[in-house]
Amino acid sequence: MTRFCKECGAPVSENHSVCTECGHRLPQVEKMEMTEPKPKPPKTKKQKAIVAAGMTAAIVLIGGSFFASKQVSAENTMKKFAEAINQQNADALTSLVVHEDGSTIKKFEAEAMLNFSEEELQAIKESVATTGETPYFADTLYSIEQNGKWLGLFNRYSVKAADQYSELFIPEEEGEIELQLNGTPVSSDAVDTGPYAPGIYTLSSAFENEYGTVTSQQDLTFAGTSGSLHSNTVELDFDYVSFYLDQNTDYETSVILNDTKIPFDSWGVTENIGPLPTDGSITVSIEAEYPWETVKVDKIAVESSNQEVTLPLFTKETEEKFTKVIAAYGEEWVKARAKGDASLFTTATEEWMEETHYMIDDVLSMEIVYSGQLDEVQLQPSQAAITRWENADHLTVPVSFTTTDSYHLESEKATLAQQSVVCNMVLVYSEKEDQFKVDECHTMNHTDSFSGEVTKEGSAELHKGTGVKQNANDNMDGEYEFSEDDSESKERLETFMIEYNDASISAINNVDFSYVSSMLVDGSPRVQEQSDFIDHLGSIGVTEEHVSTTLDKMEVISSTEALAHTTETFVIYNDLGKHTKSYSTITEVHVVDGEIKIYELISTDEID
């Protein structure tokens, strides 16, 4: 085999130790002795099995190493990450995503990540799967990075989350608070917490104090660059609450909370109370002390820091009570105008009776009379208002009276037509008598558009106008004497007995003896007897209506004394209802200073 000198490149022989051209020393070549190969003995079955197993192990080791390196490769990690997002698999994400320190994320963090929108999750997948340009939102949140060695041999890749931190501000209220982030407890004492994987977390809060417990939830989005601190205030439906009425009040009114009464001031506003839950989870009561009753409304849900409340002025029972008075007044109003006699009112105050008397006289002075009937009464209780003046409590209620009536000359036939008039009726309440009376019904307007909430049918009983009756004692001089042969004497006695029974009924209905006292002989047996009778009927709540009185006989005792035999009919109202009764009565009457007066009730028997 030809060799060459490394110094000058000249060919040299194998036997030369130096180059014949330049004298450079040549390396020595060892001579190999050729020997005859010895034949190998044949392998045993055991040796063959060992060789086969070794070859198989080598193949498995090579294949397993290849498979393992693929499983933890960046490409496969990116693929599994995308599949976990597509399948909304939070468990799978916990094995693929790590914090910046290499620790795996918790399941609640994975769930928070999956709360991103579809568009945002798609951007995250693209940012992890590519090294090219990605959306700014996703590029700052997740990336694919080497995360140590697997089995100490193969590079392992994970998805690294940009660590996020939370700062919670908790309202400084007296009470206990519990916080959870996606169901995982969070210490309420810690100012900063984290790290967290980027995502949308649900913060659950539960706050409790002496007034109640309120729970709330709010979404917190953690999506910033690495180390971002997200500041949020814990939202609690707790606040200091002030209650106010929708009207001013002159009466003792309170909010009742946990058996404690908090009063409203004269403007209808309470002091601040709380802090209270304002999510409707607790309720309060409102109570007012009105002259006629205590009104209370329960279970008012607290839903605002400035809570408006509406308190009725009366219960349904009281509404029915004054509705009955107003309906009775309507009947008396028609009858009094037809009879020309304001004293027929039993439902009005003396002041209003006197004013009505002047109104009736004004009409009669024009030689005009009134005929009519009450068809219907309507009320609007929801529009009622309460005021206090002149040491009296007044309730104002819009009222409509529908009548069929007419004003006409007494000598003419009435042309009746239906009409409706409206007034703001003022009722005065007497705590002593526990009853309402009409104190005013001014500003009457004709209207057909009144929308009543309560309707009462009228009696539709027609009262014909009779003009002004002459008093039996008018123009009577001191020489007047009873005479059985004098028809005028009988007429005057009958007129007097009618007037006396009208006055007696007014005294009974008003529980006021003065209505009739002037028609009795001073010191006579009838004075004390009638006074006691009026007080008794008033104590048991009986009222009456005078229907008619007819003089059947005048029995003359002397020129100044007589017995009046009368048939009298009354309507009596008591707890058992309405009753019409007639009586046969004998009354002793005297002439005193030229006027007829009652001396004694001789007898009275009910007529079957």
UniProtKB/TrEMBL annotation:
Major subcellular site: membrane
Biased amino acid composition, Acidic residues: 476-488
UniProt entry keywords in alphabetical sequence: Cell membrane, Membrane, Nucleotidyltransferase, Transferase, Transmembrane, Transmembrane helix
GO molecular function, one term: DNA-directed RNA polymerase activity
Membrane disposition: Single-pass membrane protein
Annotated segments matching region Disordered: 465-488
Stretches assigned to the YvbJ-like NTF2-like domain: 324-441
Entry keyword Nucleotide-binding: no
Subcellular compartments: Cell membrane
Principal EC category: transferase
TM stretches of this protein: 49-68
Pfam families with a match to the protein in the record: NTF2_YvbJ, TcaA_2nd, TcaA_3rd_4th, TcaA_5th
GO CC terms of this entry: plasma membrane
Residue span(s) of domain TcaA 4th: 239-311
Enzyme Commission numbers on file: 2.7.7.6
Domain of life: Bacteria
Domain TcaA second: 75-160
Domain TcaA protein NTF2-like: 490-601
Descriptive protein name: DNA-dirted RNA polymerase
Organism, as annotated: Jeotgalibacillus campisalis
